[in-house]
């Protein structure tokens, strides 16, 4: 970080350990400075070991992984894809890359993720209109596992394949099983702000060998077998660099520490801020779930009329503390003004009342205290 930023508290900055440089050093020494090499294979195997996934393809972003994941599920021009409205735009943009249309579904208020009741309503209505959705995207926002049992049951009932966007949720579990293993294809992100990072990067996990093979093929320019370059479908240049995979291997060694620290940060904020009945630090984990607590969030109570999210954000900013409103629902984005949607009031309310607090795993007790004091000055 720049020197004038030395006392700035960021939302979720990179947190490097001791081993990343060893992997990068070895890659350069051995001249594996390319989107092929032993760190890529190693990173993929280690991600499979950690999550329990059968197959992994390392890619240069989570967005690229969503793009190719939807492609191998057969999404194409004219199709519709079900997607939560309450998420980052990168969840939905790849639907558009493929010439398909997102159909937005509201959140439920326990985990803030896609609502199984609204989901069924959306599917029934699309079926009545003669448009069976081609795929469903599930997101685990801020690391909190979605209500998978109910949501996956609806998807199975209508035989709609699931892409699991676990970009924010590496290290979270549902019923003891790692997130990133619940979709026909699942996606991770290693962007600079995520719980572990390769600066930029992503991965696709799947239990099906054919999906992994297709994704690898599409990610490396779709070269048909031939001595020259022969192509029969459109490919992409989406593979992760061997240098960055080296950073990823060093980071992945630390994942359990990082989850532990983020969970401690959530608990600390909860203990020090929850006492005020003007705000809620939350949401709590449903029984059987473990959230990695990627970001701790705060909701202003409905009774709270004096203080707005923007006033609180600006106050934190005046103390050189970065914070950010919760995701603005995608159905409110000008980009998606034409897209169909089912419900929306739940996530609109969360957006109006919610703020993400600094949650980086390198935060000290002094940093946490500075944030809590600044919040208390306003609330
Ligand atoms: C970060 C993120 C992505 C995109 O990942 P990139 O690696 O930045 O492309 C997708 N979905 C969600 C929910 C994210 O938070």
Give a structural overview.
It is a single chain. The protein is of the alpha/beta class. Helix content is 37%, strand content 15%. It contains twelve helices and 15 strands. It has helices spanning 20-29, 38-51, 62-72, 89-97, 116-128, 148-157, 209-219, 242-252, 255-273, 309-318, 345-353, 365-378, and strands at 55-59, 80-84, 101-105, 135-139, 162-165, 173-174, 177-178, 185-189, 202-206, 279-282, 289-290, 296-300, 324-325, 341-342, 354-357. The strands form three sheets. An eight-stranded mixed beta sheet has the order 1-9-8-5-4-2-3-14, with helices on both faces. A four-stranded antiparallel beta sheet has the order 10-12-15-13. Strands 7-6-11 form a three-stranded antiparallel beta sheet, with no helix packed on it. α10 crosses α12. The radius of gyration is 21 Å and the shape is globular. It binds pyridoxal-5'-phosphate (PLP). Pyridoxal-5'-phosphate (PLP) is lined by residues 61-63, 87-88, 90-91, 139, 165, 167-168, 189, 191, 202.
């Amino acid at each position: 970080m720049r020197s004038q930023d030395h006392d700035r508290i960021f939302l979720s900055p990179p947190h490097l350990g001791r081993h990343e440089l060893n992997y990068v050093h070895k890659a350069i020494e051995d001249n594996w400075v390319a989107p092929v090499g032993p760190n890529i294979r190693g990173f993929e195997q280690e991600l499979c070991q950690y999550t329990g996934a059968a197959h992994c393809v390392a890619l240069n972003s989570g967005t690229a992984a969503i793009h190719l994941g939807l492609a191998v599920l057969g999404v194409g021009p004219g199709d519709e894809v079900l997607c939560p409205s309450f998420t980052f735009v990168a969840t939905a943009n790849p639907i558009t890359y493929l010439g398909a249309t997102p159909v937005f579904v509201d959140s439920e208020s326990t985990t803030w993720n896609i609502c199984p009741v609204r989901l069924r309503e959306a599917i029934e209505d699309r079926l009545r209109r003669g448009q069976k959705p081609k795929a469903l995207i599930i997101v685990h926002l801020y690391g909190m596992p979605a209500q998978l049992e109910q949501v996956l049951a609806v998807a199975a009932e209508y035989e709609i394949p699931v892409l699991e966007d676990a970009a924010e949720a590496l290290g979270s579990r549902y019923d003891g099983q790692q997130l990133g293993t619940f979709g026909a294809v699942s996606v991770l992100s290693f962007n600079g702000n995520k719980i572990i990072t390769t600066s930029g990067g992503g991965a696709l996990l799947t239990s099906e060998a054919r999906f992994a093979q297709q994704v690898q093929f599409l990610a490396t320019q779709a070269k048909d077998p031939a001595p020259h370059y022969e192509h029969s479908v459109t490919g992409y240049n989406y593979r992760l660099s061997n240098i960055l995979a080296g950073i990823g291997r060093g980071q992945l060694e630390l994942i359990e520490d990082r989850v532990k620290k983020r969970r401690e940060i959530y608990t600390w904020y909860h203990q020090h801020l929850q006492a005020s009945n003007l705000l809620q630090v939350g949401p709590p984990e449903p029984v059987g779930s473990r959230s990695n607590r990627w970001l701790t969030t705060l909701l202003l109570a409905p009774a709270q009329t004096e203080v707005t999210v923007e006033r609180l954000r600006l106050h934190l900013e005046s103390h050189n503390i970065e914070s950010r409103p919760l995701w603005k629902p995608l159905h409110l984005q000008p980009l998606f003004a034409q897209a169909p949607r089912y419900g929306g009031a739940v996530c609109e309310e969360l957006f109006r009342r919610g703020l993400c607090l600094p949650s980086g795993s390198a935060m000290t007790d002094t940093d946490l205290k500075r944030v809590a004091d600044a919040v208390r000055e306003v609330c």
